[in-house]
Structure formats: structure tokens, C-alpha cells
Structure prediction request, 120 residues.
Amino acid sequence: MANKPLPHDHGQAIERELEHMPCVEDFQTVADIFKQLGDGSRIRIFWLLCHCEECVINLSSMVDMSSPAVSHHLRQLKAGGLIVSRRDGKEVYYKAADTERAQLLHHMIEHLVEITCPSA
Prediction:
């Protein structure tokens, strides 16, 4: 939106800031991440996976949910790049992705609800 004058001049000189505004796709990426975290159970599963690597059965027990429900949340978190998985024989283990995005979301969750990390 470079050098495009606004219809009304309110004396804020915002036009210069608009030159540095991220593109629509960048904001959509943020919206997609927040959609992923729009479910309390999914946030809880993600938070757990920031602290351990676990299989579906153990996660189901930890969050008191059925395995199919946990699997559903894991698929969504994995599709969003927030978690990764590895197979060991017949078992699949999940953990938080080692990315800046996952780490930022982990810290944001803890700050928003004032949770203390077990390792802190």
C-alpha cells in the first residue's frame, strides 16, 4: 500500500507505517495458528507435548479423553506444524515441533494462564 493517500487525513501520518505492513497472507498464517488453538483440549495436548514425547494412549489417559478424540486433535496440531511424530515399531510418538513458532505459542500459553513450566 505504498504511497496511497487515504481518503481522510486525520493528521496521523499512518501512510508511512502502511509501507511496512505485512501482507495479507502473513496475517492469515497467524489466524490459522489461532484457529488451531481455538479448543481448550487441543491447547492442553499441545502444552503437554511441549514437555514430553508421548503416544496417543498415554495422552488419552493424561487428558481423560478417548483415543479417537486425541488423535483428531493431534492431526490438527500436526497439520499446523506445531507438533511432529515419529514411529517406533507399531507405536507413534508425538512431541512439540522444534520451531520458533511452537516455542512462542508454548510461552504465550504459559504467560496467558500464568502456568509455570515443570522444568523452570
